[in-house]
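Notes to self after the Tuesday call (sharing in case useful).
The group wants a holo model before anyone commits to mutagenesis around the pocket. I volunteered. Ligand is VTB. Logging inputs and output together so the record is complete.
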Amino acid sequence: MRTSLIMQVLGVAEAAAIAAAEYNGRGDKVAADQAATEAMRRAFNDIDFAGRIVIGEGERDQAPMLYIGEEVGQGGVGSEKIDIAVDPLEGTNLCAYNRPNALTTIAIAPKGSLLFAPDTYMWKIAAGPASAGRVHIDAPPAQNVAAVADNLGKPISEVNVCILLRKRHEELIAAVRATGARVRLIDDGDVFGAIASAVPNTGIDLYLGSGGAPEGVLAAAGLKAIGGTFMGRLAFDLDPDGAAKRERALKTAGIDLDAPLTMDTLVRTDDAAFIACGVTDGEMLAGVSKQGGSLTTTSIIMDAADKTVRFIKTIRRGQTGSIQF
Ligand code: VTB
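Result:
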Protein backbone atom coordinates (compact mmCIF):
# COMPACT_ATOMS: atom_id res chain seq x y z
CA MET A 1 0.00 0.00 0.00
CA ARG A 2 1.17 3.48 -0.70
CA THR A 3 2.74 5.41 2.14
CA SER A 4 0.57 8.38 1.22
CA LEU A 5 -2.55 6.34 1.98
CA ILE A 6 -1.16 5.44 5.39
CA MET A 7 -0.48 9.12 6.08
CA GLN A 8 -4.03 10.00 5.09
CA VAL A 9 -5.38 7.29 7.36
CA LEU A 10 -3.22 8.69 10.13
CA GLY A 11 -5.18 11.94 9.63
CA VAL A 12 -8.40 9.94 10.04
CA ALA A 13 -7.23 8.47 13.36
CA GLU A 14 -6.18 11.93 14.53
CA ALA A 15 -9.51 13.51 13.58
CA ALA A 16 -11.38 10.84 15.54
CA ALA A 17 -9.11 11.26 18.57
CA ILE A 18 -9.53 15.03 18.58
CA ALA A 19 -13.31 14.63 18.44
CA ALA A 20 -13.38 11.98 21.18
CA ALA A 21 -11.02 13.90 23.46
CA GLU A 22 -13.64 16.62 23.85
CA TYR A 23 -15.39 13.99 26.01
CA ASN A 24 -12.38 12.94 28.11
CA GLY A 25 -13.57 12.67 31.69
CA ARG A 26 -17.13 13.81 30.99
CA GLY A 27 -18.68 10.48 31.95
CA ASP A 28 -20.56 9.97 28.69
CA LYS A 29 -19.13 7.04 26.76
CA VAL A 30 -21.92 7.02 24.20
CA ALA A 31 -21.33 10.63 23.20
CA ALA A 32 -17.57 10.06 23.09
CA ASP A 33 -17.96 7.04 20.82
CA GLN A 34 -20.39 8.85 18.57
CA ALA A 35 -18.07 11.84 18.21
CA ALA A 36 -15.15 9.57 17.29
CA THR A 37 -17.24 7.55 14.85
CA GLU A 38 -18.68 10.60 13.08
CA ALA A 39 -15.28 12.25 12.75
CA MET A 40 -13.68 9.05 11.53
CA ARG A 41 -16.33 8.44 8.90
CA ARG A 42 -16.17 12.02 7.65
CA ALA A 43 -12.40 11.85 7.36
CA PHE A 44 -12.43 8.47 5.57
CA ASN A 45 -14.90 9.84 3.05
CA ASP A 46 -12.46 12.56 2.19
CA ILE A 47 -9.81 10.12 0.96
CA ASP A 48 -9.58 9.11 -2.67
CA PHE A 49 -9.75 5.36 -2.21
CA ALA A 50 -12.37 2.62 -2.26
CA GLY A 51 -12.59 1.57 1.37
CA ARG A 52 -14.83 -1.12 2.78
CA ILE A 53 -15.51 -1.52 6.50
CA VAL A 54 -14.87 -5.13 7.51
CA ILE A 55 -14.81 -4.54 11.24
CA GLY A 56 -16.74 -1.54 12.49
CA GLU A 57 -19.48 -0.33 14.76
CA GLY A 58 -21.77 -3.31 14.13
CA GLU A 59 -24.24 -4.72 11.61
CA ARG A 60 -25.95 -2.30 9.26
CA ASP A 61 -29.25 -2.41 11.14
CA GLN A 62 -27.62 -1.50 14.48
CA ALA A 63 -25.02 1.02 13.40
CA PRO A 64 -25.75 4.06 11.25
CA MET A 65 -22.07 4.79 10.70
CA LEU A 66 -19.05 2.65 9.93
CA TYR A 67 -21.22 -0.47 9.86
CA ILE A 68 -19.85 -3.73 8.53
CA GLY A 69 -19.87 -3.59 4.76
CA GLU A 70 -20.15 0.22 4.52
CA GLU A 71 -18.16 1.69 1.67
CA VAL A 72 -16.14 4.80 2.44
CA GLY A 73 -13.89 7.07 0.44
CA GLN A 74 -14.25 8.96 -2.80
CA GLY A 75 -13.91 5.69 -4.72
CA GLY A 76 -12.90 7.29 -8.00
CA VAL A 77 -12.12 5.11 -11.02
CA GLY A 78 -8.93 3.15 -10.49
CA SER A 79 -8.70 4.01 -6.81
CA GLU A 80 -7.16 1.51 -4.44
CA LYS A 81 -9.52 -1.11 -2.93
CA ILE A 82 -8.87 -1.33 0.77
CA ASP A 83 -10.40 -3.31 3.64
CA ILE A 84 -10.68 -1.44 6.88
CA ALA A 85 -11.05 -2.56 10.49
CA VAL A 86 -11.87 0.16 12.98
CA ASP A 87 -12.64 0.72 16.58
CA PRO A 88 -13.18 4.50 16.45
CA LEU A 89 -12.88 4.72 20.23
CA GLU A 90 -11.22 1.68 21.76
CA GLY A 91 -12.02 1.98 25.45
CA THR A 92 -15.10 4.20 25.55
CA ASN A 93 -15.15 3.98 29.36
CA LEU A 94 -11.44 4.86 29.50
CA CYS A 95 -12.28 8.07 27.68
CA ALA A 96 -15.45 8.81 29.66
CA TYR A 97 -13.56 8.46 32.97
CA ASN A 98 -10.25 9.85 31.72
CA ARG A 99 -8.35 6.62 32.37
CA PRO A 100 -5.18 5.72 30.47
CA ASN A 101 -4.94 4.31 26.97
CA ALA A 102 -8.18 5.22 25.23
CA LEU A 103 -7.24 5.09 21.54
CA THR A 104 -8.71 5.45 18.11
CA THR A 105 -7.69 2.40 16.10
CA ILE A 106 -7.63 1.51 12.42
CA ALA A 107 -6.16 -1.36 10.41
CA ILE A 108 -5.98 -1.24 6.63
CA ALA A 109 -5.14 -3.99 4.18
CA PRO A 110 -5.74 -4.85 0.53
CA LYS A 111 -9.37 -5.85 -0.17
CA GLY A 112 -10.26 -9.39 0.88
CA SER A 113 -7.49 -9.85 3.40
CA LEU A 114 -9.07 -9.05 6.78
CA LEU A 115 -11.25 -11.63 8.52
CA PHE A 116 -14.91 -10.66 9.03
CA ALA A 117 -14.62 -11.67 12.69
CA PRO A 118 -17.85 -12.49 14.53
CA ASP A 119 -18.76 -9.98 17.23
CA THR A 120 -18.04 -12.33 20.12
CA TYR A 121 -15.16 -13.11 22.48
CA MET A 122 -11.70 -14.37 21.61
CA TRP A 123 -8.90 -15.73 23.76
CA LYS A 124 -5.72 -13.97 22.72
CA ILE A 125 -1.98 -14.09 23.13
CA ALA A 126 0.31 -11.37 21.81
CA ALA A 127 3.99 -10.62 22.12
CA GLY A 128 6.79 -8.86 20.30
CA PRO A 129 9.04 -10.01 17.45
CA ALA A 130 11.46 -11.82 19.79
CA SER A 131 8.67 -14.26 20.61
CA ALA A 132 7.34 -14.75 17.07
CA GLY A 133 6.37 -18.39 16.67
CA ARG A 134 7.52 -19.18 20.20
CA VAL A 135 4.32 -18.75 22.20
CA HIS A 136 1.01 -20.51 21.61
CA ILE A 137 -2.62 -19.84 22.46
CA ASP A 138 -3.02 -23.41 23.73
CA ALA A 139 0.15 -23.52 25.85
CA PRO A 140 -0.21 -23.10 29.62
CA PRO A 141 0.50 -19.55 30.88
CA ALA A 142 3.65 -20.73 32.66
CA GLN A 143 5.09 -22.03 29.40
CA ASN A 144 4.31 -18.84 27.50
CA VAL A 145 5.69 -16.63 30.26
CA ALA A 146 8.89 -18.69 30.42
CA ALA A 147 9.27 -18.49 26.63
CA VAL A 148 8.88 -14.70 26.64
CA ALA A 149 11.43 -14.35 29.46
CA ASP A 150 13.85 -16.47 27.50
CA ASN A 151 13.23 -14.63 24.22
CA LEU A 152 13.70 -11.24 25.85
CA GLY A 153 16.72 -12.45 27.85
CA LYS A 154 15.34 -11.44 31.23
CA PRO A 155 14.30 -13.27 34.37
CA ILE A 156 10.66 -14.31 34.71
CA SER A 157 10.35 -11.94 37.66
CA GLU A 158 10.86 -9.02 35.24
CA VAL A 159 8.27 -10.15 32.68
CA ASN A 160 5.15 -7.96 32.61
CA VAL A 161 1.93 -9.60 31.50
CA CYS A 162 -1.07 -7.47 30.60
CA ILE A 163 -4.50 -8.94 31.36
CA LEU A 164 -8.01 -7.41 31.32
CA LEU A 165 -9.40 -7.21 34.82
CA ARG A 166 -12.39 -9.56 34.59
CA LYS A 167 -13.83 -12.20 36.89
CA ARG A 168 -13.36 -14.79 34.14
CA HIS A 169 -9.60 -14.15 34.29
CA GLU A 170 -9.13 -14.97 37.99
CA GLU A 171 -7.50 -18.33 37.27
CA LEU A 172 -5.34 -16.91 34.51
CA ILE A 173 -4.11 -14.06 36.72
CA ALA A 174 -3.29 -16.52 39.54
CA ALA A 175 -1.45 -18.81 37.12
CA VAL A 176 0.64 -15.94 35.76
CA ARG A 177 1.45 -14.63 39.24
CA ALA A 178 2.46 -18.15 40.30
CA THR A 179 5.23 -18.05 37.68
CA GLY A 180 6.73 -15.02 39.44
CA ALA A 181 5.89 -12.65 36.57
CA ARG A 182 4.22 -9.29 37.13
CA VAL A 183 0.64 -8.67 36.06
CA ARG A 184 -0.52 -5.35 34.64
CA LEU A 185 -4.29 -5.29 34.97
CA ILE A 186 -6.27 -3.03 32.65
CA ASP A 187 -9.91 -2.05 32.97
CA ASP A 188 -10.53 -2.01 29.24
CA GLY A 189 -8.79 -1.67 25.92
CA ASP A 190 -7.07 -4.87 24.96
CA VAL A 191 -5.99 -3.60 21.53
CA PHE A 192 -3.62 -1.41 23.53
CA GLY A 193 -2.52 -4.38 25.67
CA ALA A 194 -1.78 -6.59 22.67
CA ILE A 195 -0.05 -3.90 20.61
CA ALA A 196 1.99 -2.64 23.59
CA SER A 197 3.48 -6.12 24.05
CA ALA A 198 5.45 -5.52 20.86
CA VAL A 199 6.46 -1.94 21.55
CA PRO A 200 9.56 -1.35 23.70
CA ASN A 201 9.23 0.66 26.92
CA THR A 202 5.51 0.25 27.42
CA GLY A 203 6.03 -1.98 30.44
CA ILE A 204 4.17 -4.83 28.72
CA ASP A 205 5.94 -7.93 27.39
CA LEU A 206 3.05 -10.31 26.88
CA TYR A 207 -0.71 -9.95 26.52
CA LEU A 208 -3.00 -12.79 27.64
CA GLY A 209 -6.73 -13.17 28.07
CA SER A 210 -10.12 -12.88 26.43
CA GLY A 211 -11.67 -9.82 24.86
CA GLY A 212 -13.53 -8.88 21.70
CA ALA A 213 -12.84 -10.90 18.56
CA PRO A 214 -13.03 -7.82 16.30
CA GLU A 215 -10.39 -6.16 18.49
CA GLY A 216 -8.32 -9.30 17.91
CA VAL A 217 -8.19 -8.64 14.17
CA LEU A 218 -7.10 -5.05 14.76
CA ALA A 219 -4.30 -6.14 17.06
CA ALA A 220 -3.26 -8.98 14.75
CA ALA A 221 -2.87 -6.53 11.86
CA GLY A 222 -0.42 -4.44 13.87
CA LEU A 223 1.54 -7.36 15.22
CA LYS A 224 1.76 -9.02 11.83
CA ALA A 225 2.91 -5.81 10.20
CA ILE A 226 5.95 -5.57 12.43
CA GLY A 227 6.78 -9.25 12.78
CA GLY A 228 5.36 -9.69 16.27
CA THR A 229 3.11 -12.53 17.22
CA PHE A 230 -0.62 -12.92 17.85
CA MET A 231 -2.86 -15.96 18.13
CA GLY A 232 -6.53 -16.21 18.98
CA ARG A 233 -9.28 -18.70 19.65
CA LEU A 234 -12.95 -17.75 19.36
CA ALA A 235 -14.80 -18.06 22.65
CA PHE A 236 -18.54 -18.20 21.92
CA ASP A 237 -18.98 -19.87 25.31
CA LEU A 238 -18.17 -16.59 27.10
CA ASP A 239 -20.94 -14.78 25.21
CA PRO A 240 -24.56 -14.96 26.45
CA ASP A 241 -25.58 -14.81 22.79
CA GLY A 242 -22.80 -17.17 21.76
CA ALA A 243 -24.86 -20.06 20.37
CA ALA A 244 -26.74 -17.87 17.90
CA LYS A 245 -23.59 -16.00 16.92
CA ARG A 246 -21.83 -19.29 16.33
CA GLU A 247 -24.61 -20.45 13.99
CA ARG A 248 -24.34 -17.22 12.03
CA ALA A 249 -20.55 -17.35 11.92
CA LEU A 250 -20.66 -20.93 10.61
CA LYS A 251 -22.33 -19.55 7.50
CA THR A 252 -20.37 -16.33 7.08
CA ALA A 253 -16.89 -16.49 8.60
CA GLY A 254 -15.40 -19.08 6.24
CA ILE A 255 -12.98 -20.41 8.84
CA ASP A 256 -12.79 -23.31 11.28
CA LEU A 257 -14.44 -21.70 14.32
CA ASP A 258 -12.74 -24.08 16.75
CA ALA A 259 -9.19 -23.90 15.47
CA PRO A 260 -6.49 -21.66 16.84
CA LEU A 261 -6.50 -18.52 14.71
CA THR A 262 -3.08 -17.53 13.48
CA MET A 263 -2.13 -14.10 12.21
CA ASP A 264 -2.35 -15.51 8.68
CA THR A 265 -6.01 -16.48 9.20
CA LEU A 266 -6.93 -13.15 10.75
CA VAL A 267 -4.92 -11.03 8.33
CA ARG A 268 -4.39 -12.75 4.96
CA THR A 269 -1.75 -10.41 3.62
CA ASP A 270 1.78 -9.30 4.36
CA ASP A 271 0.74 -5.76 3.53
CA ALA A 272 -1.38 -4.59 6.46
CA ALA A 273 -0.90 -1.45 8.51
CA PHE A 274 -2.15 -0.53 11.97
CA ILE A 275 -2.67 3.06 13.03
CA ALA A 276 -3.78 4.31 16.44
CA CYS A 277 -3.99 7.77 17.97
CA GLY A 278 -4.05 8.49 21.71
CA VAL A 279 -7.20 9.99 23.19
CA THR A 280 -6.29 9.88 26.88
CA ASP A 281 -2.71 9.82 28.16
CA GLY A 282 -1.13 6.39 28.41
CA GLU A 283 2.16 4.49 28.52
CA MET A 284 2.35 4.10 24.76
CA LEU A 285 0.69 7.25 23.44
CA ALA A 286 0.00 10.65 24.91
CA GLY A 287 -3.58 11.79 24.66
CA VAL A 288 -4.83 14.84 22.79
CA SER A 289 -3.59 18.02 24.43
CA LYS A 290 -4.18 21.72 23.91
CA GLN A 291 -1.61 24.39 24.68
CA GLY A 292 -1.19 27.94 23.57
CA GLY A 293 -3.63 27.78 20.72
CA SER A 294 -2.36 24.53 19.28
CA LEU A 295 -3.51 20.99 19.49
CA THR A 296 -1.17 18.01 19.75
CA THR A 297 -1.86 14.37 18.95
CA THR A 298 0.41 11.36 19.23
CA SER A 299 -0.05 8.29 17.07
CA ILE A 300 1.57 4.99 16.28
CA ILE A 301 1.90 3.45 12.84
CA MET A 302 2.86 -0.19 12.40
CA ASP A 303 3.64 -0.65 8.76
CA ALA A 304 4.24 -3.95 7.02
CA ALA A 305 6.01 -2.25 4.12
CA ASP A 306 9.15 -1.78 6.21
CA LYS A 307 8.22 -3.61 9.45
CA THR A 308 8.51 -0.40 11.42
CA VAL A 309 6.84 1.09 14.46
CA ARG A 310 6.62 4.86 14.06
CA PHE A 311 5.46 7.40 16.60
CA ILE A 312 4.03 10.51 15.05
CA LYS A 313 3.47 13.67 17.00
CA THR A 314 1.33 16.16 15.13
CA ILE A 315 0.96 19.75 16.22
CA ARG A 316 -1.88 21.73 14.71
CA ARG A 317 -1.26 25.40 15.22
CA GLY A 318 -4.17 27.76 15.56
CA GLN A 319 -6.55 24.92 16.14
CA THR A 320 -8.09 23.79 19.38
CA GLY A 321 -11.25 21.95 18.40
CA SER A 322 -12.56 19.31 16.04
CA ILE A 323 -11.14 19.14 12.54
CA GLN A 324 -13.68 20.07 9.92
CA PHE A 325 -13.26 18.12 6.69
C1 VTB B 1 -13.40 -6.25 25.13
C2 VTB B 1 -12.04 -5.69 24.79
C3 VTB B 1 -12.14 -4.20 24.53
O1 VTB B 1 -14.08 -4.09 25.91
O2 VTB B 1 -14.24 -6.19 23.99
C4 VTB B 1 -14.02 -5.46 26.27
O3 VTB B 1 -11.57 -6.35 23.62
C5 VTB B 1 -15.40 -5.93 26.66
O4 VTB B 1 -15.21 -7.00 27.49
O5 VTB B 1 -10.84 -3.70 24.35
P1 VTB B 1 -16.32 -7.41 28.56
O6 VTB B 1 -17.51 -7.80 27.78
O7 VTB B 1 -15.67 -8.49 29.33
O8 VTB B 1 -16.55 -6.17 29.40
C6 VTB B 1 -12.83 -3.49 25.65
O9 VTB B 1 -12.04 -3.56 26.82
C7 VTB B 1 -13.05 -2.00 25.31
O10 VTB B 1 -13.86 -1.86 24.22
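Two things stood out.
The longest strand covers residues 81-90.
The mean pLDDT is 95.
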